[in-house]
Structures are given as C-alpha cells and as structure tokens.
C-alpha cells in the first residue's frame, strides 16, 4: 500500500493538481495489485483562510508517513506580508524532507509549437542551498541588511548536497544519452562554484561510461538557446537552475510543458516548474501537462525505488496517453489548441482507459 499526499497549492494548482490525480488514478486502475491511499492535505492560501496558516503542522506531520506527494504551485507573492503564519511553504517542505535534487525535464513534441524540435534534456537543480540557504544556518533567510543602504544575500554550497545532486544527474544520464554537463561560474565564485565543480568531478569518477563536461553557466545559456539538442543531463546550483529551467521550458513550448520531481534519500515530491499563474487561474486555461507529467515522474520514481514493475508500467502508460492526446491536438491554448484543462485531462484518461 502506497501513501500519497495531495497538496493543491494556489491559483491554477486547484485545477492542475486534481487533473494530475485523476490521470494517475486512471492509469493505476489497470494495475489492481497497486494499492494507493490518497490524503488531501491543506497548504497555501486556501489553508491560510481555513486554518490561519499556509503550512499547518498537521500537514507536515502527515507528510512524514507518506511515500511521496504532489505539491501544486504556490502563489506566495500575493500572501499577506509580515504575517509569520503566511510563509512560503515549499522551500520549507523541500528542506525538512531533504529533497536535495530537483529533476526538470524538457522534451519537445512534433505537433507542439516550439522554438526547437528534437529536444530531450533534463536539468537537475540543487534544491535547498545556493541563494536560498537553510534558515537554521542563518537567522532569517540568508539575507540581511547591515545598514539601510546595503543588502547582502548569502550563497551556501555544501559538499554533501553538491555530491548528492551530481549523483542524481549521473544516475539519470546512465540510463539516457550518457552525458552530464556541469554548469558553473567558478572563475568568479572560486569557492562556492569551485566546491560544486570539485564535487561533480569526484562523483563523475564513479561513472566512467558517462561523458563529462564543465561549461560556464553564461555560455551554457547561449548554447541552450542555439543548440539544445547537444545536451543530455545538466546539473547546477539552485539559482542558476531556477533560471535555466524556465529557459529550457521556453525551448519546448513554455512553462506549461515543464514538469519536475524533487527527490531526496527518503521522500519524493512531484512539483511542476511553473508558478501559480494567477493571470489564468479559475478559467480552465492552465495546461495540465506539467503537473500530470510530474505525477508520472513520481510514480515512476517510486516504481524504481521499490522495484515495482506495475508502477513503472503505469508511468509508461501515462507517457503514451499524453503523447497520443498531444498528437490528436486536444490541448490547451498555450500548446496551440482550444481544449480546456478539464477536456485535455479527460482525453488523457479516455486514452488510458481505451488501451
Ligand atoms: N514552484 C512554485 O510554486 C512557484 C511559484 N511561483 C509563484 O507563482 C506566482 C506567479 O508567478 P509568475 O512569475 O507569474 O510565474 P508563473 O509560472 O505562475 O506564470 C508565468 C506565465 O506562465 C503562464 N503559465 C504558468 N503555468 C502555466 C500553465 N500550466 N499553463 C499555461 N500557462 C502557464 C502564466 O499564465 C504566466 O503568463 C507568484 O506568487 C510566484 O512567486 C513562481 C515560480 C515557482
Ligand atoms: C520561491 C522559490 C522556492 C521558487 C522556486 O525556486 C521554484 O520552484 O522554482
């Protein structure tokens, strides 16, 4: 029996997270040996209105007994300022559950309008350090103002997390095109990026069959725009990865096409790259692809972890159903179609039920 959490989040989270759950449930119906207990857990602004806090303690407690969960986007920019009960939940969830690696694939589809075709890459982003360091390391957020005219942001890089995220990247590359590109700026951040690169080199020695390269992050940004097909797995620090994973989504059709999975030694969390998109929330315009494929990555990951071939096959079936529906053109406007969130989701479920 797997225990999976559902944390809808804010704005379009209320549309795309239920879409992902609906698709996972439809896919798992074909595998009666897989038992899942789902738990709806409050988080974000709806939770603030209901419980007075955006991340209730009982949600954090419940997550401890989960195998994994889906976290929707969080619209924290709109939360009340200066209320400690209105915190941004996701950096805390990522840290408390040691979700050190954020795996963000970008894949193009022939029938989706995009700047590039034949793109199939994964960006792995360190998830808990960089310019978003652990609040326990610094009083506050890692940012402070020694005087009203000077602000300082501290960037933290540890050998432990750098090696962990490198290991994630090499393991992924092993099963793909066998190439890892390390993106850094060690000419400037000699210590921080220096330690990150050294950690990646050390881990790389364990994977002699995987081609290894180091690229300055600014050069990599240009290469990604000009020739993304040259990449397989990219690995980098938190803030570089935050920016570049939005860029890689832009290569294949935009933020609606950007799924993600945060993993650590014990837990895993499906979390799309995009934010809560308040501009389109409540209108059934949100592309559910990113969240559905994040959910697919979650069950695939659990399948590998627990050597459960049914979970892996269910993930494979979601992949195929999504490709079929994209090919048929039942897609949202950002993908060039006319379908609403609900219609695209139902078309994916119908394809799963048919095959
Ligand atoms: N992981 C998370 O929960 C993240 C949360 N945010 C938060 O989200 C809120 C909005 O931030 P923005 O900068 O506007 O970024 P955003 O990613 O929410 O939206 C940027 C643009 O992409 C579009 N978009 C995003 N997801 C889409 C989807 N699934 N289908 C179709 N179009 C989609 C939006 O309509 C908007 O035009 C803010 O409160 C921000 O702090 C931002 C990034 C990540
Ligand atoms: C506020 C940040 C934690 C948002 C972010 O890094 C992301 O999910 O892309």
From TrEMBL:
One MF term in the entry's GO annotations: 3-isopropylmalate dehydrogenase activity
Keywords of the record: Oxidoreductase
Isopropylmalate dehydrogenase-like domain boundaries: 3-348
UniProt EC number: 1.1.1.85
Source taxon at top rank: Bacteria
Alphabetical list of InterPro entries matching this protein: IsoCit/isopropylmalate_DH_CS, IsoPropMal-DH-like_dom
SUPFAM superfamilies assigned: Isocitrate/Isopropylmalate dehydrogenase-like (SSF53659)
Pfam families the record matches: Iso_dh
Family per record: Belongs to the isocitrate and isopropylmalate dehydrogenases family.
Protein name per Swiss-Prot or TrEMBL: 3-isopropylmalate dehydrogenase
Lineage of the organism: Bacteria, Bacillati, Bacillota, Bacilli, Bacillales
């Amino acid at each position: 029996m797997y225990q999976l959490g559902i944390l809808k989040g804010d704005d379009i989270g209320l549309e795309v997270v239920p879409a992902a759950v609906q698709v996972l449930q439809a896919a798992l119906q074909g595998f009666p040996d897989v038992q899942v207990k789902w738990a709806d857990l409050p988080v974000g602004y709806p939770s603030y209105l209901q419980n007075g806090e955006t991340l209730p303690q009982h949600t954090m407690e419940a997550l401890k007994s989960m195998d994994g969960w889906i976290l929707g986007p969080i619209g924290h920019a709109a939360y009340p300022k200066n209320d400690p009960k209105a915190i941004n939940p996701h950096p805390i969830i990522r840290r408390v559950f040691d979700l050190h690696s954020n795996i963000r694939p970008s894949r193009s589809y022939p029938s989706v309008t995009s700047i590039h075709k034949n793109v199939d890459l994964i960006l792995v982003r360190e998830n808990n350090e960089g310019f978003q360091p652990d609040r326990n390391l610094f009083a506050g957020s890692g940012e402070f103002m020694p005087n009203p005219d000077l602000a300082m942001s501290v960037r933290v890089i540890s050998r432990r997390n750098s090696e962990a995220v490198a290991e994630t990247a090499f393991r992924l590359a092993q099963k793909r095109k066998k190439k890892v590109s390390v993106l850094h700026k060690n000419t400037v951040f000699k210590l921080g990026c220096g330690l990150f690169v050294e950690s990646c080199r050390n881990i790389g020695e364990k994977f002699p069959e995987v081609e290894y390269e180091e690229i300055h992050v600014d050069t990599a940004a240009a290469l990604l725009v000009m020739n993304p097909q040259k990449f397989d797995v990219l690995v980098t620090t938190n803030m570089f990865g935050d920016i570049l994973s939005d860029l890689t989504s832009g290569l294949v059709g935009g933020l609606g096409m950007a799924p993600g999975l945060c993993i650590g030694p014990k837990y895993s969390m499906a979390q799309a790259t995009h934010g809560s998109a308040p501009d389109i929330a409540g209108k059934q315009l949100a592309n559910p692809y990113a969240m559905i494929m994040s959910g697919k990555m979650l069950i695939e990951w659990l399948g590998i972890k627990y050597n459960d071939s049914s979970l892996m096959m269910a993930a494979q079936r979601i992949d195929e159903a999504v490709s079929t529906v994209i090919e048929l053109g039942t897609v949202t406007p950002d993908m060039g179609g006319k379908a609403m969130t609900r219609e695209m989701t139902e078309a994916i479920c119908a394809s799963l039920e048919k095959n």
